[in-house]
Amino acid sequence: MVDYIISFVVGGIICVIAQILMDKTNLTPARILVSFVTIGVFLGALNIYDIVVEYGKAGATIPLPGFGYNLAKSTIKEVNKVGLVGAFTGGVKGSAGGVSAAIVFGYAMAILFNPKSKS
Questions:
Q1: How far apart are CA 67 and CA 44, in angstroms?
Q2: Reduced 3-state DSSP string for the chain
Q3: Are 92 and 103 in contact (CB under 8 A)?
Q4: 60 Cβ contact list (under 8 Å, min separation 6)
Q5: In the chain, how long is the greatest CA-to-CA distance?
Q6: Can you tell me the distance from the alpha carbon of 109 to that of 116, in angstroms, rounded to the nearest whole number?
Q7: What does the CA dihedral 40, 53, 99, 110 come to, rounded to 10 degrees?
Q8: What is the domain partition of the chain in residue ranges?
Q9: Residue 53 reports pLDDT greater than 90
Q10: Measured between alpha carbons, how far is 68 from 80 in angstroms, rounded to an integer?
């Protein structure tokens, strides 16, 4: 039960930071999202985000910094395994499952429900 609460709090803190950035700065949501992924990559490469993931679990890996963390860790692992080529293939291999799931579930929701564009 405590793990669920900690995950909720960590994920909530990440979302609160994004909301504050949207409310208090002129940054667009797209720039904030890209910044979060980039921060996740840097913190993952420096092994700093490992501490957040250790305690926050899904609360740290599901939001966008977790995606960047996954890219960094997958790339580092692949570079150690196959060399320089791993710099190009590691991120793709590490994130393929999540991206594929997002596409499949998004398509399924579009079939089940009647999506409309904003007017």
A1: 10
A2: CHHHHHHHHHHHHHHHHHHHHHHHCCCCHHHHHHHHHHHHHHHHHCCCHHHHHHHHCHHHHCCHHHHHHHHHHHHHHHHHHHCCCHHHHHHHHHHHHHHHHHHHHHHHHHHHCCCCCCC
A3: no
A4: 7, 10, 11, 14, 49, 52, 53, 66, 69
A5: 50
A6: 12
A7: -110
A8: 2-112
A9: yes
A10: 18
Question: Alpha-carbon distance 32 to 3, whole Å?
Answer: 28
If you average pLDDT over every residue of the chain, what do you get? 92
The pTM assigned to this predicted structure is: 0.79
Q: Which of the 8 DSSP states describes residue 36?
A: H
CB-CB contact of 33 with 49 (8 Å): no
Residue-wise pLDDT for 58-93, tens only, equals 999 988 999 999 999 999 999 999 999 999 999 999
| Residue carrying structure tokens 């079939």 | 111
- Per-residue tokens: 25: 């700065």
**With DSSP H G I counted as helix, E B as strand and the rest as coil, what are the percentages for the chain, rounded to 5?**
80, 0, 20
Amino acid at 37: V
